[in-house]
Write a structure and sequence with these properties.
This protein is an alpha/beta fold. It has 2 domains: 333 residues, no CATH class; 92 residues. It has 17 helices and 13 strands. The strands form 2 sheets. Strands 2, 3, 4, 5, 6, 7, 8, 9, 10 and 13 form a 10-stranded mixed beta sheet that branches. β2 and β3 form a beta hairpin. The longest helix is centred in the C-terminal third of the chain and has 22 residues. The chain is globular, with a radius of gyration of 23 Å. The protein starts with a helix and ends with a strand.
Amino acid sequence: MKKFKHIIFIILIMAVLVGCNESNYSSSPNLNIEVPNDEVMPNDKSNTKNELIDGKNDIDLISIEDYMLINSHKFSVEEGNLNIDFKGFADDLSNTDIVLTGEIHGIKSNYEMKLALIKYIKQKNNFKYLLAELPYSVTYYINNYLETGDISILDNLPVSSRYTMFPSYEDFYQWELLYDFNQSLPEAERILVLGIDLESDMFLAFSLINDILAKKDISNNMENIVSLIDESISLINQSLQNKYKAVENCNIILQDIEKNRDIYKDFLSDDLVVIENVIRNIVKYKESTSKKGDFVEYNNFRDMMIYSNFEIFDNILPEGKYFGQFGFGHVLQDFNFNVSWFASYLNEEKSKYNNRVLSVVYNYVNCETIDRHRETEISLVFDFISDVQDISESKYILYNLDNVSVKRPDITLLDNVSGDTLDSDVSNNFQYIILMRNTK
């Protein structure tokens, strides 16, 4: 199994380096876990768990395996609803402002778990904003669909923008399910989707700007900018090779906004933030493409931009809590693999969200993947839970890594990019693991 896991991680790293599509959702570094040698648990693990729980106050330091056994909680997902009898998880959710889940892209059960968590977290902390590893331009149209229910809005999104890593029915259908859930909520409590990734689909980004400008009365001061937008759309329609000229137009617009900000503010009002940020992310996406061959440089650049985009909208949106599902790396709360990840920015001491972020990562056993040519399965389990994954026959198990009432040895990540053992315990990076098994 360990050899297979290493092969899977190597494949994921290669996907990071070469890019899986225009959006290049690369955030899954090769992870091993370095743990002390623990004694083997008895076969009857359910009885052992009860014994450990009964006597845990008398134990100064227990093995990692015993700790994981005590802090494992089976649960179910039925008709899209998460059912779990563990108050600690609900309490942690209610006491945090941002909940992030980290997936390995392209696994079918990611979508079912995401929707179940959306419903569950909404109930526990009434979050307002669903963060997405998508460009803002994509989620602008998704929000239009969520507001109107007009399915043609989704149908008209370009395939390259509609989907993440693997074009699939699940990618499309998740928004229909979110629409149905939103309709069950009071209007003021409905969820908005916020894309904070780089603008990887230039045509869609310019189309969004054009749609906003079409609702304005164009003044003489704005005619030149509107002309540059129209020219950019025309160029891209003619050939994708014209992207460089469209990026030049973006730089011209950004310089003009900086020079004449008051004029733009009067003309665009609140839409100025949207247009300026979309244009900036067109330019930054083009810049990022030159870094894709370097795992560290690319992910540092991209996650810096993801955080910057988040900050911009967090400062102007009405106050509300957040939930988001991202690729694994983005949800790590500490500096790892020589990368400052999105969640590590959120958790910096200077951040207003310091100690207000909860990260949950997914592990998988025999879970079906989304493959364009054939069906495959993946198993990916951290070493320190592999020996306790059969605690029950439950399809889903939640592991709590941050139970401070029970002492355990540190569990450290091993960086397979550099070969170094990282200093901090895993709970400084993510606080829970959700194990999914035999999902189709």
